[in-house]
């Protein structure tokens, strides 16, 4: 049991502990004042009217409020929430310097003062900053007015003033707002055809006012014109397009039309939608002018016309070129170049002898017509017209179709390029001369195919200061041109082409530069340009002497001039064999080999340089030879008759009167001088082509063995070369 003494003792102890606790709490009381800084206005700045004073205050616990003090006197302006600021009315203070501090209080009633700043109050000119009217635009029957936003600290209102007097002596207030962010309004039912004047007055809270500058409208202009941009057409419609109007008070477009630029104009259509900027019609005629204009009108009835435009007149179509008609298999093939008119309708081919339309085709790719059973040794005239969609007709292209045997040759044209040869063709009598090439490249060594339908030749071009020859093939009228070798800018000579016996292959010589012309290969290629191959290894090939019975006979030797002589191989290059060795180096490679009627036999020649004499031999398949006869000077460019009984050749005799074309009967050894001439170019069915000089140029002569007549078939002022008679 606790006695009274113990009770008193416990009470004393409890009292002591309570006093100690109170003393401990008093030792931890907050005594740190808050910190505060004025952020605006700046020290030594000038102020007037109502000024916004801002500050920043921090405390270790909590800021409860801030107060603005001016000249050591509490203004009564307080703020209890961040961001801290005051609206200080300077008009109640005298003009001059004043000291500002902000006093901050925390939750422990600690207080702290900001560093003082000094400002100069100047209310001698206390007016708001004026604003200006930026723009006045007329739209939809009224003015839209825009002005600048006020930056005044004690803004109260905008007042928009309007007058029709330049000095605004008599104006009216048409709009008032106390919203500083409202900087535009409309004035309805106004006319832009007279001048209007506007001004904005800014009023502040002290009812000070500042009037802005006077803004004058301009008279509503006549709307800008729009030009017709294009008048185009296709097979279905004509379309007119114009630029879109930029007129703010757009009223309408009016589209006008006339057949001529100066003719009477009629209204085609009217559009009230400004975005409509095109017109189409299916009723039109593009073979003449179709003029269009656009008038732009505004809502006030003002209008302006723009520049007009017409369609491009559709002219008659370009003509298609007629190639020389091809005669083969008793038919006449008439071919023309493909037309490229976008409005093509038809090709119309006429027989001018009967004046009948013999072909009309609406397929633009259909460029061939066959006249069947065309008589031999006949000529006929044909005319080609091209008709377009509007029934316009091209200028006619007329040509003569002939079934006469042809002669093809090259004609040297002196012009911008030296030694330029183009290929021409003519009838056997020298008539109907036509160029079958016109590409301005040099052509040589023209040859007919055995069927007389194709020609081949070598063509020179310069792919960068280098000499290059390619082998080309076409039909004899120049159509269907194919580059058979296609060097693609490699420095290669592909030369002296000739057809094989079956109209399937072309054989030629090829060598690359830098090299010597004597180091060549014999090549072959199909007439479609496929299977281009070399038939021989590199060697000293003089070239193909002749082709007979599916064998190629050629003079050859290796690079050391060993084992040279006459070789034979098949058309694919197989079975290559030396059949006549040139042991004494006296075999003549320049035309000294020609075939006989027996496939195993042939003729060859030897040339004695000292005696200037050629000896003709016959070689037999068993290896033996027979001397035929001696010939004074040379036997060049030999051609045998169809029965191999006679050889025709050129002899460059020392005696100019004996220099020319000879025949030698291989059975009787009868040698005859036929005519003067140089280089037999071709022989066919008793007809011999050769060259001869006439004045300063070379012409081609046709010698008829039957009549022994020699006719100049070119008779031109140009040099003519490489002539061939078309096989029948």
SSE order and pairing:
Elements: H1 4-27, E1 35-40, E2 46-47, E3 50-58, E4 63-70, E5 73-79, E6 84-89, E7 96-106, E8 111-113, E9 117-121, E10 133-139, E11 142-147, E12 155-163, E13 172-177, E14 184-187, E15 197-204, E16 209-211, E17 215-216, E18 228-233, E19 238-242, E20 250-258, E21 266-271, E22 278-281, E23 291-298, E24 303-305, E25 309-310, E26 326-328, E27 331-335, E28 344-351, E29 356-361, E30 368-371, E31 379-388, E32 397-402, E33 406-413, E34 420-427, E35 434-435, E36 442-448, E37 454-461, E38 468-475, E39 482-483, E40 492-499, E41 505-512, E42 521-526, E43 533-534, E44 543-548, E45 551-556, E46 565-570, E47 577-581, E48 593-595, E49 602-608, E50 613-619, E51 625-632, E52 636-640, E53 646-651, E54 660-665, E55 671-675, E56 678-684, E57 687-694, E58 697-704, E59 709-712, E60 720-725
Parallel strand pairs: 2-9
Antiparallel strand pairs: 1-3, 3-6, 4-5, 4-7, 7-8, 7-9, 10-11, 11-14, 12-13, 12-15, 15-16, 15-17, 18-19, 19-22, 20-21, 20-23, 23-24, 23-25, 26-27, 27-30, 28-29, 28-31, 31-32, 33-34, 33-60, 34-35, 36-37, 37-38, 38-39, 40-41, 41-42, 42-43, 44-45, 45-46, 46-47, 48-49, 49-50, 50-51, 52-53, 53-54, ...
Uncertain stretches of 5 or more adjacent residues: none
DSSP helical segment count: 1
Q: Based on CA inertia axes, which overall geometry fits?
A: elongated
Evaluate the radius of gyration: 56 Å
CATH architecture term of the domain at 35-121: Sandwich
What is the C-level CATH assignment of the domain at 35-121?
A: Mainly Beta
Q: What's the β-strand tally?
A: 60
CATH superfamily of the domain at 35-121: Immunoglobulins
